[in-house]
Structures are given as structure tokens and as C-alpha cells.
Design goal:
heterotrimer; A mainly alpha; B mainly alpha; C mainly alpha; A: mainly alpha; 66% helix; flat; C: mainly alpha; Helix Hairpins; 73% helix
């Protein structure tokens, strides 16, 4: 794809989206009442503000997830060439997992996995 | 392809093993384990330090990603000695009521940063270098925020992690340019295809700014004083000695090997930053009342002196940098040890509190005096020889003007080091710090520092021993 | 897909992202936003590495692997930074930079 077609793609996209938005604002019947501008929450009136504080537990889980999630990035390249690399690479990845597992065990021991 | 070749990374393997053993011990021991973990970890690390001195060959591993030789081995041993002293000094502080629940974390994080530094020093390509560098900085940030209830500690932690993240981002941008222009991330191949094109010069500047953050060179020093003041004293001494030392070591190696083709260019950069660092570090150190901040600025200005050794690019320079770092570890840890002993007992950290210390605690004040004299570079103690060789190395490279500026700065620095000595020995105070007897571990740490300052200054074979392995541009 | 798009486009994108990151780091007042700026810087480096690798040195994968490691390390860095930010919030009741100013020159 050359850059001309890319520009054309953007123009067509912008025009199409704009046309649909304008069209849909012209067509429907209009009604004005205070309920329309409220946030929708299951059909019942909302209570409180939306800038709530989240429980600190969410952050703990997010941090744990973040770390263990990204480590898989190292497993995929290994899995692709597993057969060619053979035994040494297998042992190495096992060591990698053992150290990761120790980290998880540590989190467990420190009660990071309990929802308070 | 035997397993023996992995012995080349003996330092790292032993340290990893110790870290895992402490982690497993922490998982297994129930209840209050601070009593058992502390001596256990120190003994394990002492064994590792001794093992580090066994002879080891040269070589490289993982297709050149990891390399080691005699010089790198010495550097790792120097760092090991420093960490051992810090462990011994922090023994008492770790026994405090609030720290009891997280003693093993202290050792785990310290040891993992040390592993990172060892990998960083013996890296053979930019990838290993980057991973080692990050492993050396991320845990130290959580250590700076170690005292959870103190606001200053949390603030130090966030300042450290954000500024180090920014600096490594800038450095990586430089590395990506180097990769783009040379087509490799291996040191040996990058060195071959460097030829000071504009983009490579820019890449070096980016890389230099990243490193300057870690060594806290002016104008990249702004985080230093705040982090040093806010962090616990053990962590501060670790940052000012070990982190800085490791960064200096790898920087020397990289300047002398990777950036060999750009020598004329980096000499200019080093010249300007070294003058700035010495002068501004000194000027700010003069007006500090808090001793931790004071030592922070004094360590900034010491970094400027270290650049004097690098700038010549000769093997005398490399020797003097490592030798100076060894002396600097002993003297700075001695000063920090005294500050920490007094702060642990009384909570006082300001210079005014030290008035009349000699009358109540003569031994501590004598040790502090020797450590400060060594930092300043007054002849009978080791610091003089360290600075002397740095100046010689710069003069050998033909930088006479820089040596003159360095000598002038040494004289300025005498003023503020002597202010502390004056406070301890001459000033009178109605409420001096009461006499106290410190416990065995604190005393052991201080005695090691004292012996180190005397020993490295008196016996020249330390210098000769390092010089055997040194190399120039 | 990338045929016809010159390498410079990617490098310009990387440079713009890098400096947006630097600008955000220096001007923002919210700690989380500062952390996001750092991630921008790291991602601009990733773009550089991948583009150089793809265009100039397609026979070796060094640039790609560097990128993988940068991603992993950035995650670890973010985890530690967020943990410290939570601690800051507990101490100061705010994550604004101007409130965390106990120490100054």
C-alpha cells in the first residue's frame, strides 16, 4: 500500500463517519428532558460520584498480573524453536519458571492473594 | 561445551544462589524471623565475598553477551566488599521494631541489585547491559521507599524510580541510534563500525546523559540530594557508593572499548561536565546543614574527580579510578557509618547537633575525622593517594588545566569537610550528644572502614595489583 | 504492508513520541501521568528498534529481542512505581507532584 492510498483511505473514512453522524443527528425525533443528560446505570437513578476510590486490592492484583503476564513474552520465542534448541534451553526455561514460581509463592505467603 | 564454562559467571551464580536461599528461608521460617535471617544472610554473603577472590580465567559466554577478565573480577570484588560493610552496618537498624517484618526483603533487594550490577559490569552487548542496569536500579527504588510510614522515604522512592526511568529511556534512545548506524548491539562489533558520524555523536550524547544520571553528574544531579536525604541511611550509603561505583566501572570499560573511536569527542564532554560537577557539587555542599545532604553533594563532587581519571584514556587512569573507588568506599562508608550510628541512637542528623561530640564520644569523632580527611584528600590518609593518582592520570593525558581546576576544588572542599571537624572538636554545646556505647556489629563495620582507609593508603601493592589488569584506549 | 513507506516515517514517529514523552514528564503534575510519559519514551525506543531491524538489518533479530526485553522491564518498572505511588497516596493523600515536596534545596 503506498502513501497515496493511505491518505485516500483516511479521507474516505473521515467523510463516511462524518456523513453518518450528521445524518443520524438530522433524522430522529427530538425530545428534551433532564433525564436525558444523566449517566445511564441499569435504568435506576445514579448515586454518588463516579470519581470513586477503588479498593487498594485491585492495584495489588493488577501489579501481580502485570508482572506475570508480561513474562510470557519470553516463553513464546522459546516455544517456537523448542525442538531445535533441545535440552539446555528446556532446563533454562524450567529455571525461569521456578524463579517466577518462587515469586508467586512469596506473594502467597505475604497474603497478597487474599481479598480483603 | 561443558558445564565448567558457566563457572565464568561465578559471582552471579553464587549471588543468585544466596538470594534464592534467603527467599526460601523467608518462606519456610514462621513467626519472627529477623533474629535468624540477619546473621544468616551476612554469613552467606561473607562466604560469597571470600569465594569471589579465588582466581578465575578470562572468557565470554552466550555468544559474547557475557564477558569477564581480571579487571572485571577486581571491580566485582570491590563492590562485594562495599556491600558486606553495608550489611554489617545496617544490622542494628534492621533490628528496629518497625523493620522486623521486612528484614529478608532488605537482603533480597540488595542482593538482586548487586546481581544486576555484576551482570552490567561484565556485559558484552547492550542488551545485557540494559537488563543489568535495570536490575540494579528498580529494586533500589523500592529500598529507598523502605520505611513505609515516613513521608520522606516514599518521596525519595518515587523520585528515584521516575528519574531513573527517564534516564534509562534517554539512554535507550541513544542505544537505538547506535544500533541503527552500526547494525549490532554487541560491543565488539559496535566498536568496529563507529566513526563519529553526526548521528553516532548524537547517540553518544544521549547515552552519556543516561549514564550521567546514574553517576549523578551535573547537570543531571538534581535527584541526588533529595533521594539521599529521604532514603534510610543504609540505602543512602549503598546508592552513594555501590550504585555509583558500578556505573563508573562500566562507564570506564565502555569508554575505553566501545567508544574508542570517539576518544577526542568524549574527552571534550568529560572535560566540561567534570569541571561543572566538581565546582557545583562543592558550592552546594558548603551550604548544607543536614549531614546526609552534605554527604550527597560531596559525593557529587567526588564523581567529578573520578572523571579526571577517565579523561586521559590511559591504563593508569583505569587503575586510579578503581583504586580511588576502593578508597572512596571505605571512607564514605566510614562517614555514613558514624552518621548512622548517631542517628540510630539519637535521631539527629544535622551538623549543629555534632557540636562538642569529641568530648562525649571521642572514638566516633576521631573516626569521622579520618573518614572526612580521606574524602578531602589530606596527605597521611588513603584518600590523598587516590586523588593523587587521578590527577597524575589526567596530567599524563595532557590535561594540565583540568588538573589545576581539580586541585583548586580540592582546596575548596577542604573548607566544608573541616567545618564538620570543627563542629566536633572545637565548637561548644550546652546539649551535646550523650556518650553511648554502640553494639558489636556497628563497631565491626566502623573498624573495617578504618582498617581499609589505613591499609589501602599504606600499602602500595593494592595499586600495583590493580594495575596488572588495567588497559587503556 | 510497509512497502513504499520509507524508514524515515517511522523514525519521525519515534522522535515525536520521544519528545512528547519528555515534555509530558517535565510538565505533568500527576504521578501516574508522569509514569505514562515514561512509557511513551520507552515505546518510541521500541519503534526505533523494530524499524531499524526491519529495514536495515532484516537477517538478524537483535532489534526485535531488544524490544521484547524493554517491554518486560518496563512492566516491572511500572509495577514498582505504582506500588510506591500507592504508598505516596497513603502518606500524602494525593498523587500530585506539588504535594510531595518535603525536601527542597
Amino acid at each position: 500500500m503506498s502513501s497515496e492510498s493511505l491518505i485516500l483511505f483516511f479521507i474516505v473514512g473521515a467523510v463516511f463517519v462524518g456523513a453518518v453522524l450528521i445524518f443520524s443527528s438530522l433524522v430522529p425525533p427530538k425530545s428534551k428532558n433532564p433525564q436525558k443528560s444523566e449517566a445511564y446505570e441499569c435504568g435506576i437513578p445514579t448515586t454518588g460520584i463516579t470519581w470513586l476510590q477503588f479498593n487498594i486490592g485491585y492495584y495489588l492484583f493488577a501489579i501481580l498480573f502485570l508482572v506475570f503476564d508480561v513474562e510470557t513474552v519470553f516463553v513464546f520465542p522459546w516455544a517456537v524453536v523448542m525442538k531445535e534448541l533441545g535440552m539446555i534451553a528446556f532446563v533454562e526455561i524450567i529455571i525461569f519458571f521456578v524463579i517466577l514460581g518462587l515469586g508467586l509463592l512469596y506473594a502467597w505467603k505475604k497474603h497478597a492473594l487474599i481479598w480483603e | 561445551m561443558g558445564l565448567e564454562q558457566y563457572l565464568l559467571m561465578r559471582h552471579e551464580l553464587v549471588l543468585t544462589l544466596i538470594t534464592l536461599i534467603i527467599l526460601i528461608a523467608e518462606l519456610c521460617i514462621k513467626g519472627d524471623n529477623s533474629r535468624k535471617i540477619r546473621p544468616f544472610a551476612i554469613i552467606l554473603f561473607f562466604i560469597a565475598t571470600v569465594v569471589g577472590f579465588l582466581p578465575l580465567g578470562e572468557g565470554s559466554l552466550f555468544g559474547g553477551m557475557f564477558q569477564t577478565n581480571g579487571m572485571i573480577l577486581i571491580m566485582k570484588n570491590v563492590l562485594n566488599i562495599g556491600v558486606l560493610i553495608i550489611f554489617i552496618q545496617s544490622y542494628t537498624w534492621l533490628g528496629n521494631e518497625e523493620n522486623k517484618i521486612k528484614v529478608s526483603e532488605f537482603f533480597l533487594l540488595m542482593l538482586s541489585t548487586l546481581i544486576g550490577m555484576d551482570f552490567m559490569i561484565s556485559s558484552g552487548d547492550f542488551l545485557m547491559f540494559y537488563i543489568g542496569l535495570e536490575l540494579a536500579t528498580i529494586p533500589i527504588a523500592s529500598l529507598a521507599a523502605y520505611e513505609r510510614t515516613k513521608t520522606k522515604s516514599a518521596e525519595a522512592g518515587i523520585k528515584l524510580i521516575l528519574s531513573s526511568a527517564l534516564s534509562s529511556g534517554i539512554m535507550l534512545y541513544g542505544i537505538s541510534m547506535l544500533y541503527g548506524t552500526t547494525g549490532s548491539i554487541y560491543f565488539s562489533e559496535v566498536a568496529k563500525s563507529l566513526h563519529s558520524s553526526n548521528l553516532q555523536t548524537l547517540a553518544f550524547i544521549f547515552f552519556f546523559s543516561g549514564m550521567a544520571f546514574k553517576i549523578s553528574i551535573v547537570p543531571f544531579h538534581l535527584w541526588t540530594a533529595d533521594v539521599y536525604e529521604g532514603a534510610p541511611i543504609s540505602v543512602t550509603s549503598y546508592l552513594s557508593v555501590i550504585s555509583k561505583g558500578a556505573a563508573v566501572f562500566i562507564f570506564v570499560i565502555m569508554l575505553f572499548t566501545v567508544f574508542r573511536a570517539m576518544t577526542a569527542m568524549w574527552q571534550d564532554v568529560l572535560y566540561i561536565t567534570s569541571v561543572l560537577t566538581m565546582t557545583i557539587g562543592n558550592l552546594f555542599a558548603m551550604r548544607q546543614k543536614n549531614l546526609k545532604r552534605f554527604l550527597a553533594f560531596s559525593s557529587i563532587s567526588q564523581a567529578g574527580f573520578i572523571f579526571l581519571g577517565m579523561i586521559g584514556g590511559n591504563e593508569l587512569g583505569m587503575t586510579s579510578v578503581v583504586y580511588f573507588m576502593l578508597i572512596y568506599i571505605f571512607s564514605n562508608l566510614g562517614a555514613f557509618g558514624v552518621v548512622s550510628a548517631i542517628a540510630n541512637r539519637t535521631g539527629k542528623e544535622n551538623r549543629d547537633d555534632y557540636d562538642g561530640l569529641y568530648l562525649t564520644n571521642p572514638k566516633l569523632s576521631l573516626l569521622m575525622m579520618i573518614a572526612l580527611f580521606s574524602l578531602a584528600g589530606i596527605p597521611p590518609v588513603a584518600g590523598f593517594f587516590g586523588k593523587f593518582f587521578l590527577f597524575t592520570a589526567a596530567a599524563k593525558g595532557g590535561f594540565y588545566m583540568l588538573v589545576l581546576i581539580g586541585v583548586l576544588n580540592t582546596i575548596i572542599s577542604l573548607y566544608y569537610y573541616l567545618l564538620v571537624v570543627k563542629a566536633m572538636f572545637i565548637n561548644k554545646s550546652e546539649t551535646p550528644i550523650q556518650y553511648f556505647k554502640s553494639d558489636g556489629y556497628t563497631r565491626l563495620g566502623l573498624i573495617i572502614c578504618f582498617a581499609g582507609i589505613v591499609f589501602t593508603g599504606l600499602f602500595s601493592f593494592v595499586f600495583e595489583y590493580i594495575r596488572v589488569y588495567a588497559f587503556g584506549v | 504492508m510497509t512497502e513504499g513507506t520509507p524508514l524515515t516515517y517511522f523514525l519521525i514517529l519515534g522522535t515525536i513520541m520521544f519528545f512528547i514523552g519528555i515534555y509530558g514528564f517535565l510538565t505533568r503534575r500527576n504521578l501516574i501521568t508522569i509514569l505514562m510519559s515514561v512509557e511513551l519514551i520507552l515505546n518510541s525506543v521500541n519503534i526505533n528498534f523494530v524499524a531499524f531491524n526491519k529495514y536495515l538489518y532484516p537477517d538478524k533479530l537483535q532489534g526485535h529481542f531488544f524490544t521484547l526485553f524493554i517491554i518486560a522491564v518496563a512492566a516491572a518498572e511500572a509495577a514498582v512505581a505504582i506500588a510506591i505511588i500507592i504508598n505516596i497516596y497513603r502518606n500524602f493523600n494525593s498523587i500530585n507532584v506539588e504535594d510531595a515536596d518535603e525536601m527542597k534545596y
